[in-house]
Amino acid sequence: DADDLLDLSKAKTIRVSLYGLNRPDSVRITGSSGTLILYLESRPDTLSAESYDGFLKLDDNRLTFTNSAGIRTVDSLAVYSDSSSTRLITDEYGYRHYSGSLHFEADRQSSGLTIINAVDLETYVASVVGSEMDFENPEALKAQAVVSRTYALWSIQKSPYKEFDLRDHESNQVYFGNIKDKPWYLAAAEETKGEILTWSNQLILAVFSSTCGGRTADNKDVWGGSDHPYLAVQNDAGACSISPHYRWTYTMPLHEFRELITDTYGFSVNDKVIEKDLSGRVQKVMLADSRADTLFFTGNEFRLFINRFAGPMALRSTKYDWTDDPDTLVFEGSGLGHGVGLCQWGTLGFARAGWNYKDILTFYFSGTKIVSLDSFESNTIRLYN
Question: Cα–Cα distance between 165 and 172 in angstroms, integer?
Fold first, then answer.
């Protein structure tokens, strides 16, 4: 299938959609060197190739750009920076620095700005390592670098979006732009440059979560679809017990839960049945009323339903026991996130125990090999499906 064959010449640049969770309607754009181009009805107006400082704002579906030369209405704006990075300042996110090019236009559906950053693959990987892992252990960071690079390349080929490859938040990988003053993140990318994970010479879907709670999950149990042999359940022998999310408890008044179900589904809860998978994660939740009618959730659907009401740290994973006394629901759980693939806190635990990054990766992605992008003479790689 040609759709599963990645042309590696496309893999040098990653296109990232910025600020997608909460699109700002204005941004200050500054840089010490580069070219800033304003577009109005497709006509480009190029500004200085030296320093630039301006303010872009969406107002009544119109974009205005303000700088020392005055105010102009534009359709879109592009920044091509040279060796330095561009600084973006927003009320929502504060200061961030981005290498590569930036393209700005109005997202009129969400009344915010669409901002796409096209950035060199290795620069992107270094930033994701720092955005995802607030650790300094070099072996843990190198493991994350290989996983994030592999995931990024998969996303170039499989992205459902035409204008970009990845979002900059947890639905893909967290990406805060260049993280200055912490060179160990860049070192992790440089020391693993071009390294990816493969199964039978095919690029794998390299996924990860914060804390597996002692056992990783099988991808099929969490998301359905086809079974990926390299994403099987692994017992990490408590390597992630150093995580603050290894054990957690969440309680909820029973009457609040019943009201939530009734208000959302028009259903009156009388009883529950829970089914778990091999890793101890809740796979199915069935709620019954007094007439034995049932309301069905997958384990992940139920977690997301509760978290929409109670916040993302209520049910941190689907790995929990659910008990109730007459007045309260008690969820006693372990782990944070979906639990499939690499466990980030387990990675740190193994690294502290003396494992190197290659051993960590082949543990979490059983049966895979670490290979270099340079080793593919055809300049293409097939994706494992």
Answer: 10
What pLDDT is attached to residue 49?
A: 67
Cα separation, 228 vs 182, whole angstroms: 35
CB 181 within 8 A of CB 209: no
pLDDT of 326 over the 90 cut: no
3-state SS string for the chain: CHHHEEEHHHHHEEEEEECCCCCCCEEEEEECCEEEEEEECCEEEECCCCCEEEEEEEECCEEEEEECCEEEEECEEEEEECCCCEEEEECCCEEEEECCEEEEEEECCCCEEEEEEEEEHHHHHHHHHHHHCCCCCHHHHHHHHHHHHHHHHHHHHHCCCCCCCEECCCCCCCCCCCCCCCHHHHHHHHHCCCEEEEECCEECCCCEECECCCECECHHHHHCCCCCHHHCCCECCCHHHHCCCCCEEEEEEHHHHHHHHHHHHCCCCCEEEEEECCCCCEEEEEEECCCCCEEEEEHHHHHHHHHHHHCCCCCCCCCEEEEECCCEEEEEECCECCCECEEHHHHHHHHHCCCCHHHHHHHHCCCCEEEEHHHCCCCEEEECC
Predicted local distance difference test score (pLDDT) of residue 110: 67
- Helices 138-158 and 357-364: crossing angle in degrees, nearest 10, is 50
217-275 per-position pLDDT tens digit: 999 888 888 889 999 999 998 999 999 999 999 999 999 999 999 999 999 998 899 99
Q: Which of 166, 175, 77, 168 is nearest to 133 (CA)?
A: 175
Give the other-Cβ count within 10 Å of 235's Cβ. 11
CB 23 within 8 A of CB 110: yes
Counting residues of the chain whose pLDDT is more than 90, the rounded percentage is 76
